[in-house]
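A sample copied in:

***
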Amino acid sequence: MKRLVILGGGESGVGTAILGKKKGYDVFVSDFGKIKENYREVLILNEIAWEDEQHTEALILNADVVMKSPGIPDKAPIVKKLVAKNIPVISEIEFACQFTEAITIGITGSNGKTTTTMLTYHLLKQGGLNVGLGGNIGKSFAWQVADDAYDYYVLELSSFQLDGIVHYKPHVAILTNISPDHLDRYEYDYQNYINSKFRITMNQTEADYLIYDADDEASNEWLKKNTVKAQLIPFSVSKMIENGAFLKDNTMEININNEEFLIETDQIALEGKHNMKNAMAATTVAQLMKIRKQTIRESLSNFQGVEHRLEKVLKIQNVQYINDSKATNVNAAFFALDSMTTPTVWIVGGVDKGNDYSELMPLVREKVKAIICLGIDNKKIIEAFGNVVDLMVEVDNMHDAVNTAKHMTEKGDTVLLSPACASFDLFENYEDRGNQFKREVKNL
């Protein structure tokens, strides 16, 4: 009996444990932190051995294969010991893909991947396909494979999940864009991170597809230097594309193998230039999957968007409050500021992942009237923008951030929470940060 050890007892870990058990592995789950009550119950119910708040080496280093949760870095001591012993350390996606015949659509990128994943899922589901949603969002992919429920999966894949693949290959891969993020996990070498993203296509064949942003510098550079077997389908908001997607005046056009699809941009529920890109990528998948054009049209116009991503919360005294807590890097904040059309009070800050704020400078000059720094260490933000805006205030909780913002606004302004940073200094995660923002706005 093969021994499967799982590091991390969260959604992906427990899902993998259930699939492993079903497939006849001797399964052990080990979490250095505390396993949440609901996951503990699942493990006990399924008679799966587990431990938390420790890693017992004797029970881990005897594994045949190890599934590592994406949150655990490669430099964790236990991971280094496993690698030294040549024990394969893989991701949930890699483990689960060998047990399903389903077609997967894999979506990665520094920004826009959640929106693109949700929209792609929405298009395929509305189109009548038997489709599941997993990866970085929703229910664990491995768990769904164990229940054997779907013919198709739309998977949001982080670079960490892609680092742990060996044989996994999506039939359709989407790379939304690449900008510096998580560099702390890639020895602060941007090229390592770019290579990581492109692992999504490494096992693809001529029968598969890679959809990518033709306006994205890092993607174009990589594609010039490396060969890809998959059929390339680019999308662009700045140039005409023969086989792919582009914007012409106010129309989104998609041509794939002489199949044409057109839609006016004002019929698409998502707003902003970056969202046109997300819509192009998702619609390209729907075209490849032969979803009816009328269904695609309706689905693009009724899509609800993603929570904590440019989410309009409330308009109070003609001031619009927007929750973009999911913007955990500079590039995401760039998109948010770029889509502002009124004077903006910007709430920014948190745990900095090696951010370079200089690319935001033109947008801040043009659109931002005041900045509220919401973090424990705001030095870099103050150095970058202190001389650019008239008003800059530091706060250390969401109540003060929202109430300060209210006093800085006048009719017609926007208050934008788009932190450009991780949230762990003051909040549990970006969802907690976004929920606190919404609560405070509703209390105004």
In short: The mean pLDDT is 93.
